[in-house]
Amino acid sequence: MTTKLDEKMVRNIVSNVLAQLGTGATPSSPSAPSAAPFTPKKKGCDCGGSCSVFPTADKACEAAADAFTQLQKAGVEGRRKIVNIIKKTCTEKQVEWGKFELAETKVGQLDAKIAKLVGIENIPGVEWLQPLGMSGDRGITMEENTPFGVIGAITPVTHSIPTIACNAINMIAAGNTLVVNAHPGGAKSAVLAVKEFNNRIHAELGFSNVITIIEEPSIESFNELCANEHIGLLCITGGPGVVDAAMKSGKRAICAGPGNPPVLVDESADINQAAADILLGASFDNNLLCIGEKQIFVVEKAYSSFIRAFEAVGAVKLGSNELQRLTKEVFTESKDAGGCSHAVLNRDLVGADAAVLAKRAGKTIAANTPLVYAETTLEHPFVMEEQMMPMIPVIRVPSVEEGVRQALISEHGYRHSSMIHTMNVAHMTLMARALDSTIFVKNGSCLAGLGIGGEGYPSFSIATTTGEGITTPMTFTRRRRCVLVDQLKIY
C-alpha cells in the first residue's frame, strides 16, 4: 500500500523530516552525507556491495546477465521483494541520500531531492503486469509480459538516484536486470545507491548484481554498453545528444528526451490558483524537472491580474536591464556545423537558486525566493531554450489561439509536457490537439502530471522521443503469446 505524495507534502517534507531527526539543516544548503552505506550484518554480500560496481561496461553486463538467471529462478515473488526493498531503502535513506546528491551535483534543492525519493514509494510494481487470457472452441491462448533480459540504463545528473530507483523498480518488476551508466556529475550518488540496493537484495534473496553500475562512466563506457551482446534494450534519460547516439546504436531504445514545457493562462482561469500552481511547478528543485513549466503565455485580458497574483505568491520580477544582464550570463552564442548561430546554455547555472540568478542579473533578493520572472517575447532565449533554472519568462498574447500557436513554437515539437489554466473546455481541447504532448495538465501544476496533486504515479523516465510515454513495468516487457490448441471447453 502506498502513501500519496501531494503538494502539501512536497512543501513540508523537509521541515518535518529534519525536525524528527533533531537537525538544524536548511532545505537549500548542501552538506556531506553523515552516514556510510548500509552493510548487512548477517547474510549480506561478503564484498561489502562492491560486487555491483564494475570498471567496465562489459564486466557489468556479464554480471547482470548472470543475475538475470537468478532473478528468473526467484520468480514473480522474488521481483516483488526486490521492488519493496528498493522502495523501503529510498524512504529510509531519503535525507542522507538527498544531502549526498545535492553535495555532489550542486544543482537543485534539498527538499526536492528528498521529495523525489519519498515519491519512489508510488511507482508501480509487479501488480502492473496483467496477463490476457482467451478461451474458445479451438483452445486456450495466454498473452503475457516477458522480460528483455539485461537493460542498459543511462541516467541524468538532475535526478541521479531517483532515476536509478525508478528504472530499477520498473525493469526488475518486469523481470529484467539492469546496467547503469550514470551521468559523471552524479556518479558517486549512483554508486552509493546501487551498492545499498544490492546489499539489501543479497541479504534478502541471496544473490547480487540485479543492478550493476559502471564506476567511472564515460562516452567510452556508453559505447561499450550499447555494443554489448547481453544488452537487449536501452533506456535513455538525458539530453538530445545521448538520445541521438542511442537511437543510432542498432539496439532498441526507449528514450526520454528533452522538453521545453509551456503553460497557457486565459481570462477564465482561477488566476490565484494558476499563479500558485505555476510557482510550485517551476520552482520545484529549481526547475530541473523535464516536465516543469519553462515559459508562461498569458492572454491579454488576464495579464495584469496574473502578474499581481504571481508576485503575491513569491515570484520576483527582473527588469529589462536585469534580464539583459542575466541573459548574457546564462547564454552564449555558438555556431553549428552549418554556420547558423544558436544559444548555448551556461551549465554552471543549471539548477542554481533564484537568488544566485538574481545576483548575476545585478539584483539582490531574499535567499529563499523561489522564483524570478521577466517579461519577454517569444523569440527570447529564455523562451526558446530549455533552461533548467528558476527563472521563467512571461509572454503577453492577444488571444488563446495566439497563445497556443506560440506555445507550440516554443515547445519545438518535442511532445513532452504542457499545461493550461482555463475553465473553457474548448481551450483545453485546442491546446491538447495542437501540442499533442505526452503529459497535458489542466488547472494544476506540472507535478500533477506525475501524481503529485493529481491522480496517477511518478516516473523519472518519460519516453517522449520514442513514444512509450510515462514508463511503467509494462514498458520494459515483450508481449508473448502461448497457444494451446484443443477442444477444451466443457460448457
Could you explain how this protein is built, in words?
By secondary structure, the protein is α/β, with parallel strands linked by helices. The protein contains 15 helices and 20 strands. The strands form five sheets. Strands 11-14-15-10-9-16-17 form a seven-stranded parallel beta sheet, with helices on both faces. β5 (177-182), α6 (187-205) and β6 form a beta-alpha-beta unit. The two termini are 39 Å apart.
Write a compact overview of the structure shown.
This protein is α/β, with parallel strands linked by helices and 491 residues long. The chain has 15 helices and 20 strands.
Keywords, separated by commas or semicolons:
491 residues; alpha/beta; seven-stranded parallel β-sheet; six-stranded parallel β-sheet; 20 strands; 20% strand; globular
First-residue to last-residue Cα separation: 39 Å
Low-confidence stretches: 13-45
Number of strands: 20
Order of adjacent strands in the largest pleated sheet: 11-14-15-10-9-16-17
How many helices? The count is 15
Task: Name the average pLDDT.
Answer: 90
* Percent of sequence in beta strands: 15-25%
Structural class: alpha/beta
Describe the largest sheet.
7 strands, parallel
Helix content: 25-40%
| Global Rg | 23 Å
Shape: globular
